[in-house]
Amino acid sequence: MSNLDQQHDARKKIYLSALALVTASAAINLSVVGIQQVHAASKTKTVVIGSVTSDADIWRHIAKSSVAKQAHLKIKVKEFTDGATLNLATAESKVDVNAFQSYGYFAAFNKAHPKEQLANIGLTYLEPMGIYSKKYTKLSQIPDGAKIAVAKDLADEARGLRLLQAAGLITLDKDFGDLDGLNKIKSNPHHFKFYEIDDTTGPRVIKDDSVAAVLMSNSISQSGGYNVLKDALFYEKVDADTKANINLLATAKKDANNKTFKKLVKLYHNKKIQKYIKKQYQGTKFEVKKPISYVSTAK
After folding, report:
1. DSSP 3-state assignment of 26?
2. CA-to-CA distance for 103 and 111, rounded, in angstroms?
3. Which of 21, 92, 231, 273 is the most buried (most CB within 10 A)?
4. Exposure string (b/e) for 186-195, b if CB count within 10 Å is 16 or more?
5. Is the pTM of this model over 0.85?
6. Cβ count near 77 (within 10 Å)
7. Mean pLDDT by 10-residue block, N- to C-terminus, for the chain (299 residues)?
8. Cβ contacts of residue 51 below 8 Å, gap of 6+?
9. β 234-235/130-132 pair status
10. Strands (E), 162-263
11. What is the C-alpha to C-alpha distance for residues 191 and 146, in angstroms, rounded to an integer?
């Protein structure tokens, strides 16, 4: 064999050795990636969240977000049409967690359903109820004897009456509670006539010429094209009187300490998520980043 042939064979051996090393390295890398993917998949937990209206939209956004992926959570959103059905489904673990209700609603449900108990795993926001009117631009313009529409649902009616008291229009009994109603009005100096309605009809009732003002929750007023910060004559603030109106995440009582479910609270308060919520809902959902104990003194 000539020197030229020997050099050619040597170069060929070097090339084949290098190719073998590259192939082996690629195979190892692919194997490591595969193991990492399997490991990541095994860490990911699936959580089913039951919700209604705008809360469902928020959680659908969170489910698709990078922060949910980083938390190793796969979120599935199941939308309901009414809160009572959703709470029962949660108590029976047909959904893991629900996001839609205020602390007052939550407490009323637990009181009415001793065998289907829920646990509060974290506070999220206050969605302010407002006093709206098509006829007047100031509370002081509402005449004595005027007709005021309030929700007939006990929790929402109590909330509405507290708002009227905060606005200085009525006073309530000292022992007024989350499920109390018109019979607990202590003083009605303007002799208002209260008209009980289904909360969802608020945007229609406000157009009734016989009604001076309507109390509406934020989600309902938004559905009618209203912005509580711009269109309400008066609205709720985050303070001692509105503790019962703060929204929360609820789960079945047996899952009160579930660490995976509690991750949802941190997700909701993530800065990226809050930036989205503020922009999407024009600042009408007031973030409440407080411990669960904050609402324990709500009446």
Report:
1. helix
2. 12
3. 273
4. eebeeebebb
5. no
6. 20
7. 54 56 52 48 86 93 97 97 94 97 91 96 97 97 98 89 97 91 97 95 96 94 94 96 94 97 98 97 96 86
8. 58, 59, 77, 78, 79, 80, 86, 98, 99, 100
9. antiparallel
10. 171-172, 185-187, 193-197, 213-216, 234-235, 246-252
11. 8
Tokens 């009734």 map to which residue? Answer: 208
Helix 53-64 vs helix 271-280: angle between axes, to the nearest 10 degrees?
Answer: 140
Using CA atoms, how far residue 286 sits from 77, 128, 157, 278, 293, in Å, is: 22, 8, 21, 9, 18
- Rounded to the nearest 5°, which phi and psi values hold at 234? -160, 145
Token readout for 31 is 């194997």
Q: How far apart are CA 210 and CA 142, in angstroms?
A: 12
User: What domains can be seen in the chain, in order of their start residue?
Assistant: 43-127+242-295 (3.40.190.10), 130-236 (3.40.190.10)
